[in-house]
Every structure is written in structure tokens, then in C-alpha cells.
Write a structure and sequence with these properties.
The chain is mainly β and 284 residues long. It has a domain at 158-284. It has helices spanning 78-87, 119-122; strands at residues 9-16, 25-35, 45-49, 55-60, 65-75, 89-95, 98-104, 124-135, 139-144, 150-153, 159-163, 168-173, 177-181, 186-190, 198-202, 207-211, 217-223, 228-230, 234-237, 243-247, 250-254, 259-263, 269-274, 279-283. Strand 1 (9-16) and strand 2 form a beta hairpin. The radius of gyration is 21 Å and the shape is globular.
């Protein structure tokens, strides 16, 4: 584990007997740290790779990252609590002006992907709920899987937000990037319209994105079981041509099922993808 820049640390631990995850034992721990970027005047980036729990990020005018983590262990016995404390950890590293917060444990493969065998196998579950204040211009890369939402507010940097079983809410967005919630809703509101390409998607939820009235962009919409709504004046774009590639000695043709629409004079491509949900593109 890499050594962080100087930080302030405070930890408090309490043990109670509750029924989280159906387990009789629960241990809670609060972790507070102040993290610094090696070059406060340079490009800043924070990466949070969580498994169970929520991620809340708020931009502010300072230069440090203020981290508060609520860590909770649910276990079937005191011995399983001890095992969870040994096996599951939050790794914190800073390199090249990137702060990396990484939840590690026996559920991780060598490449960092997740192979979670379930709490019945481990006899415990560990949840990390993050509350983070970052400099407003920070680029953010946030990911969680279970038992939590991703909420972001007042961040000017670019972003990549990914939640498997919870929703994503991004308020006062100003940059460009990707937001995807597999099984829940995506809600994004811009305080400054994006200047580069963006993607907003969900498999089983709705996608609601609000822009300022002076938006100029090219939209791409894709939905299978939902509807598309917008109060922007748009002109429809011609469909893209089918692409071809050669496979096993044959030509394979692939069509783009999305349809396009232009707002204003056009600009960055903004893609909306909601397989089983509705898409709402709203003018503030």
C-alpha cells in the first residue's frame, strides 16, 4: 500500500448487536482524513472504487480532500467480525495528483474486478459509506455495486459514475463524462452545459437530464421499452449508416438503432440510453 501525503486521522469504534444483513453482530467505525494532492495547482483526480455502500461527493473552494467514511461490518459471530477486519480494507494512495480510494478484500480478482460469492459464503458483509469534499475542479471517477446511491453536487470537473444496484444523482454539474446506473435511475442537472461528448444510461431505470436553455448539441436516443420526452426544440438527424465487418469469411452488418436530434446549431454528442426506462431531457 502506498504512503499518503500528510493527513489527519480520527477513528471511533462501537459494537452493537443488531440485525443488519440478517446477522446478529455489527461493528461500526468512523474514519476521517484530510488528504492532499501532491500538486495543488495541477490537474486533480479522485477515484473511489467501492463495493457495498454509498458515495457522496461535494465540490468546495478548498484545495484538500476531506474524507469521512462510515465503515460497518455485519457478521454472524464475533470471530467473523475479526475475519472481516483482517480481510477487508480501504486502501488509500496518491500518485501523480490522483487520489485512489479502493475497497479491497477476498471478493476481488487480481485484475480488480469483483467476484462476490455472497455473505453466506463469507459469514460477513462490510459496507463503506463515503462522504467526500473535493476541490470544485476535481475530475471524479466513482463506482459502487450494492446498498448505496451515488450523489454528487457542485463539481466542475469531468466524471465517470457507475452504480450497479443503486441510483445516481448529480446536481450542479459543469463538466463532461459518463453516468450509468444499471438497475436504478439517473438524474443529472447542469449548471453549465457540457462542452464535450457525454453518455447517460440505465438498463432498468429512467434517465432524467436537465440542461441550460442555451444548449447546442447533437442528441442520440436509444430505448427499447421506454419513451423519450424533451421540451427543447429539435431537428431530427438522419440515421447512421450500418457498419460492416468481416467475421469467419462473412460480412456482418450492424445497424445503429439510436435516433438523433439536433439542438441549436449542434455540438458535442450527448447519448441517452434507457433500455427499460424513459428518457427525459429537460430545459431549465
Amino acid at each position: 500500500m502506498k504512503v499518503m501525503s500528510p493527513f489527519i486521522l480520527a477513528i471511533s469504534v462501537s459494537v452493537v448487536a443488531l440485525q443488519g444483513y440478517g446477522f446478529p453482530e455489527e461493528v461500526s467505525e468512523k474514519i476521517e482524513k484530510t488528504l492532499t494532492f501532491s500538486d495543488p495547482s495541477g490537474r486533480k483526480e479522485i477515484v473511489v472504487d467501492n463495493v457495498n455502500g454509498s458515495i457522496d461527493v461535494t465540490g468546495y473552494e478548498g484545495q484538500d480532500v476531506k474524507l469521512l467514511v462510515h465503515k460497518t461490518i455485519f457478521a454472524r459471530s464475533p470471530s467473523r467480525i475479526e475475519r472481516a477486519q483482517e480481510e477487508v480494507r480501504l486502501d488509500i494512495a496518491e500518485r501523480d495528483n490522483v487520489i485512489d480510494l479502493y475497497v479491497d478484500g477476498p471478493f476481488r480478482r487480481r485484475d480488480g474486478s469483483i467476484n462476490h460469492r455472497g455473505w453466506r459464503h463469507y459469514g460477513y458483509e462490510v459496507q463503506f459509506d463515503f462522504e467526500i469534499k473535493v476541490p470544485q475542479e476535481t475530475n471524479i471517477y466513482l463506482k459502487t455495486v450494492n446498498d448505496g446511491e451515488i450523489r454528487v453536487k457542485n463539481v466542475q470537473g469531468d466524471y465517470d459514475l457507475d452504480n450497479i444496484n443503486g441510483g445516481i444523482e448529480f446536481l450542479e454539474a459543469m463538466g463532461s463524462g459518463r453516468v450509468y446506473a444499471l438497475n436504478s435511475d439517473v438524474t443529472v442537472t447542469f449548471d453549465r452545459n457540457p462542452e464535450s461528448d457525454c453518455y447517460f444510461g440505465s438498463l432498468n431505470g429512467d434517465v432524467d437530464v436537465t440542461f441550460l436553455p442555451n444548449l447546442s448539441a447533437d442528441f442520440r436516443f436509444k430505448t427499447f421499452n421506454g419513451d423519450v420526452y424533451t421540451d427543447f426544440e429539435v431537428t431530427y438527424l438522419p440515421p447512421r449508416k450500418a457498419t460492416t465487418r468481416r467475421k469467419d469469411g462473412k460480412f456482418v452488418y450492424k445497424s445503429d438503432r439510436a435516433f438523433g436530434a439536433r439542438v441549436g446549431s449542434g455540438g458535442p454528442e450527448i447519448e441517452f440510453d434507457a433500455f427499460n426506462g424513459d428518457i427525459h431531457v429537460i430545459k431549465r
